[in-house]
């Protein structure tokens, strides 16, 4: 099946219930499952190219993390944090692994999606079979986090799609070289029209609340927790780093090859944060790793 099905799963936060939407590609009975989770301001549609390429061999599940895309918003913005996202993914994985044939799922996570993957793969009795981390690790550059937080908090509204698309292309330049059509796709994934007909980004602006609460002390404590989680991972792990990434340093990436799951490292030259995996050569990296 080359077109996705849009489904939802009910999740819970301390503020109440919410629904998380996800796209499902491929044979719903295929026991080989790949879950793909996007970055902090992106959406499930970012994986359309990769999902089409992989859906003959895998059932590909691409959720919109709560507050993004087709998913509902949280009632309390303070819960837009990794522990809540991990909880939501546990609800999704419970549905997926309810089929007796599904004994494990593979995980592909870009940036925030990779942090969620680290959190899940560190848990005892987790179902993660293979883990792919796209340009993220336990140590995150503070300057890059401030850049991303500033971007999230900007309430940009545009009169036309083309104007909005130019903005998305400009702030997404670290993604690396793409054709005009690919940039248009990357923009359309994250843009929608509001009630006034203006073009806005397809996420809850309240996501910025959690970023504004970050301090040097909390960032240091978070790094320690992430290293502890990373060191607990036991599944085969692949780390892909954009060679020009300002979020994940080469030094951190190298350290990740020496401890915990001792990730295999692939660095992509000429790309920053983060590789989009829209291109055949990048998709082949995933195919080869999953094939073992």
Report what the structure shows.
The chain is of the alpha/beta class and 292 residues long. The chain has helices spanning 48-54, 82-96, 112-121, 142-153, 161-171, 180-189, 208-212, 216-231, 250-256, 280-291, and strands at 5-13, 16-25, 33-37, 59-63, 105-110, 128-134, 191-193, 199-201, 237-242, 264-268. The strands form two sheets. It has an eight-stranded mixed sheet, sandwiched between helices. A two-stranded antiparallel sheet has the order 7-8. Strand 3 (33-37), helix 1 and strand 4 form a beta-alpha-beta unit. Helix 2 packs across helix 3. The protein starts with a strand and ends with a helix. The mean pLDDT is 95.
Low-confidence parts: none
Radius of gyration: 18 Å
Mind describing the biggest β-sheet?
A: 8 strands, mixed
Number of strands: 10
- Strand arrangement within the widest β-sheet reads 1-2-4-3-5-6-9-10
β-strand amount = 15-25%
**Helix content class:** 25-40%
The 3D shape can be described as: globular
Short overview:
This protein is of the alpha/beta class. The chain contains 10 helices and 10 strands. It has helices at residues 48-54, 82-96, 112-121, 142-153, 161-171, 180-189, 208-212, 216-231, 250-256, 280-291, and strands spanning 5-13, 16-25, 33-37, 59-63, 105-110, 128-134, 191-193, 199-201, 237-242, 264-268.
